[in-house]
Design brief:
Layout lengths: L21 E8 L3 H16 L2 E9 L16 E2 L2 H14 L6 E5 L3 E2 L20 E4 L11 H13 L7 E4 L28 E8 L6 H13 E10 L16 H15 L4 E7 L14 E5 L3 H13 L6 E5 L17 H8 L30 H10 L7 H8 L7 H8 L12 H8 L3 H33 L3
Helix pairs in contact: 1-2, 2-4, 9-12
Organism: Platysternon megacephalum (big-headed turtle)
Keywords: ATP-binding, Nucleotide-binding
Protein name: NK1 transcription factor-related protein 1-like
């Protein structure tokens, strides 16, 4: 696939020009973690103006891009401080909905706290076209040594696009300073390193993979040494989900999940299986050591351990993560970042272009509105009508079908008896309803009479709409 190279302009905050937009980018964060936490919001805002899709983030606190020697990536210990920063990165990135943020964990590990050099180059599913950094230096100019070292450093760690472009970000979070003058970063080990486990398990729907999912999965990847078992809800487990019709197919959810996991930590073995009951293999796999849960799903983790004991297996360590607030949630949406809220926001949007059926006439174009009572059918119908659509109210046609003189009136009266008629001869719908609802055989008898009649009435109105459309076409 060809890549269009965009000519670089002045970085945000460094001039009057605007930066061209790139599909993918790598953000190398070099500030000490304690300082970085306060700078994330403006840094991400600057990056979001440059990268339009996938933004990889590489944490290398204390990295210096000055001096004569070429900087190399070293291991960062997986501490609570590091995990908290990763959580904050994803939470702050939620303000930039167009960005698919992925914090890379290759150089973050919990087996050893001794810094070591990383030698192999990691392939990424969306090779970066631009390299960004928060590193600050007083050395200006488009081709200064810092940029050259940044590009060499990035390509020594990850697969990148040819003709890589580098950008030094200058978010307006504090006065300009030369980061090369800062003391070397030392990890805060007072809180200890995160515990690690050979095999870790987690479950979820993982619909429209979002930043709260990424926080959950990142915790799993940091805790797991060898294998991560992921159960993805399917079939019966989706029945009670809000707007289940809009949940992505299982295969699509798994594909997105795999791409993310292999990007952020390719060294792990990933087993992804469908979940058709609340437990899946978590209660039968003897190799599992830890289950990752949220505040909401902790009870499920406790239930898993109860089942494991019943099956003669050891209990799993429960690692609980906090829910992430959705600061932009609507009045009818959940307060946390959730797939349910995302699906609600899809209502009224075109999910996929209409598929042309050669067997169907091009005119009229028919839109069917369905839904339960109070779902908004009438409101949407009136809106479309104001836009010029020809409105066919099938409920109204149903009433006309068994009104006196209507095409289904005599057959309905004959089938269900004269006691369903009012004094004026109209059908008493309440009495008719009492005869059919709760009696599947009688209900089918009614629908067999009325539905074909309504279908014919609808067809006539469709033909009328087509004729009217032809008359209204400009000459």
């Amino acid at each position: 696939m060809g890549v269009t190279q965009h000519p670089p302009r002045a970085p945000p905050g460094a001039g009057s020009g605007t930066m061209s937009v790139f599909r993918s980018g790598l953000l190398v964060l070099t500030a000490p973690l304690s300082a970085l936490s306060l700078r994330l919001v403006p840094i991400l805002a600057s990056a979001s103006r440059i990268v339009e899709d996938t933004l990889y983030i590489h944490l290398q606190p204390g990295l210096s891009l000055t001096g004569s020697s070429q900087p190399r990536s070293t291991y960062v210990p997986a501490t609570p401080e590091v995990y908290s920063l990763i959580t904050k990165l994803y939470a702050d990135a939620d303000a930039h909905s167009h960005l698919d943020v992925r914090v890379l964990l290759t150089n973050i590990r919990n087996q050893s706290l001794t810094p070591q050099s990383l030698s192999s180059v990691q392939n990424l599913s969306h090779p970066p076209e631009v390299i960004l950094t928060d590193f600050q230096t007083s050395d200006g100019g488009q081709y200064n040594p810092v940029k050259q070292r940044l590009e060499r450093y990035a390509t020594s760690c990850y697969s990148c696009r040819p003709n890589l472009i580098s950008v030094l970000l200058y978010p307006e979070y504090e006065p300009m300073m030369d980061q090369s003058e800062l003391p070397p970063w030392e990890p805060d080990l007072d809180g200890g390193a995160l515990l690690s486990y050979s095999d870790v398990v987690v479950g979820g729907t993982f619909d429209r993979l979002h930043n709260a999912h990424k926080i959950l999965l990142s915790a799993c990847c940091l805790l797991a040494e060898n294998r991560l078992l992921v159960g993805v809800s399917d079939k019966d487990l989706l029945e009670n989900k809000m707007l289940k019709e809009l949940i992505q197919p299982y295969e699509q959810r798994v594909e997105k999940l795999c791409e993310f996991l292999v990007d952020v930590k390719p060294s792990l073995r990933y087993d992804i299986v469908p979940l058709v009951d609340p437990y899946g293999p978590s209660i039968t796999d003897p190799d599992l050591e830890c289950i990752v849960v949220s505040e909401e799903t902790r009870k499920g983790g406790v239930a898993v351990n109860k089942k494991r004991l019943e099956n003669g297996l050891s209990e799993l360590a429960l690692h609980e993560i906090l829910l992430v607030k959705d600061l932009g949630h609507g009045a009818n949406e959940e307060e946390k970042i959730s797939s349910s809220s995302i699906r609600q926001r899809l209502l009224g949007t075109l999910l996929q272009p209409p598929q042309k059926d050669p067997a169907q006439p091009s005119r009229p174009y028919v839109i069917g509105l369905t839904g339960g009572t109070g779902s908004g059918k009438s409101s949407i119908a009136r809106h479309l009508e104001r836009l010029g659509a020809f409105l066919i109210d099938v409920d109204k046609l149903g009433h006309e079908a068994y009104a006196p003189g209507g095409p289904a009136y005599e057959q309905v009266a004959e089938e269900f008896g004269e006691d369903i008629l009012n004094e004026d001869g109209t059908i008493n719908r309440k009495i008719l309803g009492a005869k059919v609802f709760g009696n599947q055989e009688r209900l089918k008898c009614l629908t067999d009479i009325v539905w074909p009649v309504i279908a014919r009435m609808t067809k006539r109105q469709l033909n009328e709409a087509a004729a009217q459309g032809e008359r209204d076409l400009p000459l």
